Amino acid sequence: MIGAVHLSLGQVAASLALVAVAALISVWQRADLERDIGIATIRSFIQLTAIGYGIKFVFEQNSLAFVAALIAVMVVFGAFTARGRARGVPNAFWPLLLALAIAAVATLALVVGLGVFKPQARYLVPVGGMVIGNAMTAAAVSLNRLGEDVADSAPQIEATLALGATSAQAMRPILRRSLRSGMIPLIDSTKTTGLIFFPGTMVGMLLAGASPLDAVRLQLVLLYVLLGSVAIAALTAVLLAYRGFFTPAHQLREVPEPSQA
Amino acid sequence: MVAILDKVLFALDEVSYARGGRTVLDDISVEIGEGATAVVGPSGAGKSTLLRLLNRLADPDDGAVSYRGRDLREYDVLALRREVALVPQLPAPLAGTVAENVAYGPALCGGGCHIDEPLVLCGLDPGFAERPARSLSVGEQQRVMLARALALKPAVLLLDEPTAALDEKARDAVEHTLEDLRARLSVDVVLVTHDRAQSERLADNQIVIRDGRMGRPTPQLA
Fold first, then answer.
1. Contact across the interface for A163 and B58, Cβ inside 8 Å
2. Inter-chain contact A160–B24, Cβ cutoff 8 Å?
3. How do beta strands B188-193 and B156-160 pair?
4. In chain A, which residues have their Cβ closer than 8 Å to the Cβ of B39?
5. What is the pTM of this model?
6. Taking CB atoms and an 8 Å limit, are A173 and B95 in contact across chains?
């Protein structure tokens, strides 16, 4: 199966040459990104090293309680991060937290239940990480769109409420659009996978020496799992978050100043 | 200060409303009777906000609003909005055809409706029914908005600057439509307008708002 690959810190350091290229391009073209490139490089090193030791520890324990704790931490951090992109949505943290938690738990339970992966830390942690990462992006994109659409369509929403529609009825077209924006990027990248880009898992397995067919099958499983989890996350986030825009009496809380009052 | 009206439709009792730290309505007490009432005043006076309080698109921060003697909050809010229908200042039709827009309100409570009847009442040819609502001119869209409110068979129509977005010709036509509606349907109207002349053409009574307060009452119109 997979022959273990060992990289020395020296080899990692050598790859910094490409970071230097990026920084030089930024300086040369005055893109003003050197500082961000530096921060990204240092943060990625610290974060990945820390998570590497964390995962090593969890793998060694091979206890489902540790797996659950690690997943919970990822869900909380994911919700915090996604909230930053959902600024237009009131109290977005809780919908995001629930969306990521439900997506992670439902997806992992399903793949274990169907016998795709064994309930072991070695499988649950990396799959959980991918699920939460993609769910976070999808939920954030959906809520970002939701916030923009509510701001843009406030007159439409109020005009529909004025006909006796509930907030859910008035929001239906907007919820549909928000859900679509969250799901479309992954669906599109799933369509083109293998043609335009090689997905990360497959690349990792090939580099680690796995047979191409094994690499492809695992990648397919992950892509299909991600489709489901992204849909669950986007739907949950949108359905919970839109309520924050309304009072219980189906009134839109924040409306732009009317042009003429 | 307030004229004693035979049949009070709405009563505002010491109503205040602020938004974004700005006082929009400041301690307003007024009664709005049956028939056609115009709410007049300069731009930014709080007229549209007052209208929004009447079908609970917003609630006052202080004070109370009543409709036919009962506090608005005692009514089922969705039923109230079907009985007291608001037509916003700028047309905001749903995506879809004119017919879908007109049928939307009645369908929400499981009812059907005749599409042609409200269209004709609003001066639109029934041939408009299958056209995409958002492809129409602003004046035509405004009539669609009026038609879809009428499809609910409301008891009261709240009209927010119904002709502000229109040119003179379209304005005259919509005003004519409104006069015609009043003659043919027993519907009470509360009309917000910054145009005094329009208020005199269309309304029996008028209330004046200035800077969120009750303005000086004007003599009753002939």
1. no
2. no
3. parallel
4. none
5. 0.84
6. yes
**Which 71-110 residues of chain B touch chain A by CB within 8 A?**
73, 77-79, 81-82, 85-90, 92-95, 104-105, 108-109
HEC-encoded secondary structure of B83-120: HEEEECCCCCCCCCEHHHHHHHHHHHCCCCCCCHHHHH
First to last CA, chain B: 19
Q: How far apart are CA A166 and CA B66, in angstroms?
A: 22
Is the pLDDT confidence value at A3 over 80? no
Report yes or no: B118 and B152 within 8 Å, Cβ to Cβ. no
- Summarised one tens digit per residue, pLDDT across range A142-175 is 999 999 999 999 999 999 999 999 999 999 999 9
Sheet holding B62-67, edge to edge: B22-33, B8-19, B62-67, B70-71
- β-bridge partners, B84: B156
ipTM summary value: 0.89
B121 versus B39: the higher-pLDDT residue is: B39
Answer yes or no: do B109 and A161 touch at CB < 8 A.
Answer: no
Q: Tens digits of per-residue pLDDT, B90-137?
A: 899 999 999 999 999 999 888 777 888 888 888 888 888 999 999 998
Distance CA B212, CA B62 (A): 14
- The alpha carbon of residue A235 is apart from the nearest alpha carbon of chain B, in Å, by 23
**Contact A114/A166 with Cβ under 8 angstroms?**
no
State the pairing for strand pair B70-71/B62-67.
antiparallel
**Of the given ranges (A196-200, A222-226, B94-98), which has the lowest mean pLDDT?**
A196-200
Residues 20-39 of chain B whose Cβ lies under 8 A from any Cβ of chain A: 20, 24
- Residue A251, Ramachandran bin (φ over 0: left; ψ between -120 and 50: alpha; else beta): beta
SS (H, E, C) A148-211: HHHHHCHHHHHHHHCCCCCHHHHHHHHHHHHHHHHHHHHHHHHHHECCCECCHHHHHHHHCCCC
Query: Residue A164 in contact with residue B108, Cβ under 8 Å?
Result: yes
- Would the CB atoms of A261 and B46 count as touching at under 8 Å? yes
pLDDT in tens, B134-152: 999 888 898 899 999 999 9
